[in-house]
Amino acid sequence: MAYLQSSSSFHLSLLAMETSDSPLQHNLFQESFRDAWTRLLESSTKFHVVTWGTLLLYLSSYYLSSLPGFIYQFIPAMKKYKIQQDKTETWEDQWKCFKMTFHHIFTVQIPMSLAVYFLVEYADLPCDWNSMPRWYSVIAQIFGCFLIEDTWEYFMHRLLHHRRLYQHLHKVHHAFKAPFSIQATYAGQAEILIFGTGFSLGMYIFCNHLFSVWLCTMARIVQNTHVHR
């Protein structure tokens, strides 16, 4: 009961913030963005927009944010910033990693995109333009999601390093000597679901619109690939 009250109070406070005038309400891109968002919602069903839109957002964010780290290995000037100078990524390792992440699209990411749709339905999150949150509200929601997930990930990561769990759940993620961006999701399905639970909790507690869910997802993916460079 206390949890529901705190969650409701947070959403009410965000709603109060959003009723005020937005400093960006007359920006040059708002009309174009509004038209594009409206066409997106009108072009298909809510199920397709949320499910396939989430999957497309994940794939584009993940592979595009991993691309700079991949390119850096071919730029001599960037090698001096590499922390583990004595450890290099091999083509075999990178190809092996890519194949597993591609396999995860069908075994993990599509089911998780479906889960996002059910989360949106269960939490009754709006998708329409009129309910679009203000920019400062979105920033607050992203911060809240990061806070929840980072806390969850810290304790789960320590737990997965327990000798009884490491061999069965977490060892796969440490298969490579030198980390690289695309390795962020090189893990077993169980481990991905464990860490994904923390992110889902953050979205359920803080996000009040589909747009917020998508931005939180994109921000977390970019951050996750960045720390694995």
From TrEMBL:
GO CC, any one term: membrane
Main location: membrane
Pfam families linked: FA_hydroxylase
GO MF annotation terms: iron ion binding; oxidoreductase activity
Subcellular location field: Membrane
Segments passing through the bilayer: 55-75, 105-123
Keyword Transferase appears in the UniProt entry: no
Residue runs in coiled coils: none
Gene Ontology terms describing biological process: lipid biosynthetic process
Keywords: Membrane, Transmembrane, Transmembrane helix
InterPro entries: Fatty_acid_hydroxylase, Sterol_Desaturase_Related
Domain Fatty acid hydroxylase: 144-228
Protein name: Fatty acid hydroxylase domain-containing protein
